[in-house]
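Dear all,

This email documents one entry for the complex benchmark we are building for the journal club exercise. For each entry we list the sequence lines for every component of the assembly. Then comes the predicted three-dimensional structure of the complex as a token string, followed by one or two observations. Please use this as the template for your own entries, and keep the labels exactly as they appear.
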Amino acid sequence: MSNLIVPITKDNEEKSTWQFLLHELKPKGEWFTVFNIISIPIILLGIVLIVIRFWKGIGSITNLTQEIPWGLWIGFDVVTGVAFAGGAYVLTFMVYILNMKKYHSIVRVTVLNGFLAYVFYAGALLLDLGRPWNVVNPIIGNNFGTSSVLFLVAWHFLLYMFAQLIEFSPAIAEWLGAKRARKILSGMTIAAVIFGITLSTLHQSGLGALYLMAKDKIHPLWYSEFIPILFLISSVFAGLSMVIFEGSISHKVFFDQISEKNHKAQNGILKGLSKICAGAMFAYFFMQLLVFIHGQQWALLGTPMGYWYLLEMFGFVLLPMMLFFYSYRTGNIFMIRFAAIITMLGVIINRLNVTVIGFRWDAPVHYYPSWMEIVVTLTVIFTEIWIFRWIITRMPVLGDSPEWVKEEK
Amino acid sequence: MALDRRNFLKTIGVAGFTLLAGRNLASKTSGNSEIEFQGLLFDASRCIGCRSCESACAQAHNFPEPQDEMVAGVLRKTNETQRCVINIRNTEAGEVFSRNACMHCNEPACAAACLTQAMFKTKEGPVIWRADKCMGCRYCMVSCPFDIPKFEYHSANPKIQKCDMCYDRIIEGGIPACAEACGDALIFGTRRQLIAEARKRISENPEKYVDQIYGESTAGGTGYLSLSPIPFTELGYDAKIQNKSYPELSKGFLYSVPSVFVLLPPLLLGIYEANKNSQPKEEENE
């Protein structure tokens, strides 16, 4: 998709832009990697399933019912995926607004990750729409459902994708060698960042606000009028845990791309992030506690859903919070990664508890995703990783910008 | 196409206004004060369970005739080919029939949820669904406290199915097919008349009815009202339904959006300006 950007000035004297793009489109690197062997068959199967879905209807491959109209594709792909993409707005806030230069080397990859997450996971929404040909109605036309939280979320997704594209665009310009375009685009960064943070604040909480009207349908331990605030706070550590997780993998897989200096800085970055995670999780845990006391649901703790709630709160919020705190104090990098993984599991559990597990927990027929829904979800994730890898190996994302960028300064 | 500065600014202004101000307008319920909401009154003490409303509904909307048996204790639900159902209950007072269909709320959660106004509260009262606007997101189904909108999961061109109070008949001066088919358990009229009639029935026969009109204040008031000889929970009505309207629940969030949009960017800009020229923080080398 990035090759739609036409460079304003061409810097490749020996090749035309199209030759350059065609050359870049070719795969680089080995074909027979473990990831490829696993992902290619799943993606192909997923494409077949998507064709069936559009041909025979959503019911042909999903287990959705009239009582539970939103399942894995919304609860996991969209609601959880967007929480994990929250790292982009947190990091741009830290680096561009608070001027914390220490984290500058991971901003680009995080923004790229966030952008792709929005494109793919919000794009996965199209699969879940029964009448996707009408998807433009809330955007253009006279059909604005302005009282809808979903209207707000849809607009924010769209605008935030543009904001993130602008934040990332200097990397594309550097790849294409478009000097003048790079200058213009990086001049827009701060505006895009401020706009992006505002949008993120509203739609991260908006995803929770979507469920406010489903008051009678969500288990009382997970429903409260504070869902939007809880979703917003948890998106901070969900996003940063994803940054820690993804950064740790990228540092191994794309080892040769990263400069000596940034390799050394990695541990300091991870420690800083774990401190922020611990703080955000403390705020979140405290907020959850207040919501619980305010809700007066003591009696529900003795039920199976109550045990599940306690496990989420203690095993997947309090425990990783303490691990983050501990590993920050002791500098245990392994423990930071471990805590990040538990935190991510906890965020998945929390989002699914609100959207799927606790939604209509009392329904006679429970919803379990079909294997086909899971394959389609994996297809979306794997395709995203393919595009991510394609961009990483071509554009200056993890590595340093080309020399001419420094010369210009 | 030339886009001069003035037009550009105008466009930006309109877009910005739509984003900021447009969002928090509550769903429009009545545009014209001269037209009153119309509704249906179901009297469970008069219903004999003949199910002619079910078949009249099926005929009016080209659905197959409902074939499934009505069994006491089994709660039949509306589905994508049946917009209203009659259920039988064996109670101390004998057999009592309940009728389940769209409530046509005064402030419908489904319409507030709809981001394309496909679910729409008409000024005449019925809540209708409009195919050309719907994108099939099913957020109306998530939001409706009565689980009324039904989705055609096995269609490549799926529709949302729910009772529309025979809107096409009403605007031509007719009455809904179910009310036409029913003996005297189901009557059609303006909501105000129906409430007056229901009150009259209760006060004339206080021993025959529970002293409540279901829908008078339920979910902020509904267009479909019910009277019952036994408590409504025994009749299978959901006891969890609140008396406030459901769109009220997300109003606070929606109202906070413009403030955040106005206040957060200047705050961020201020923090940015304050930090811009500060020395880069020393990297921790460990």
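Observations: The first strand of chain B starts at residue 38 and ends at 43. Chain B has one domain: 38-248.
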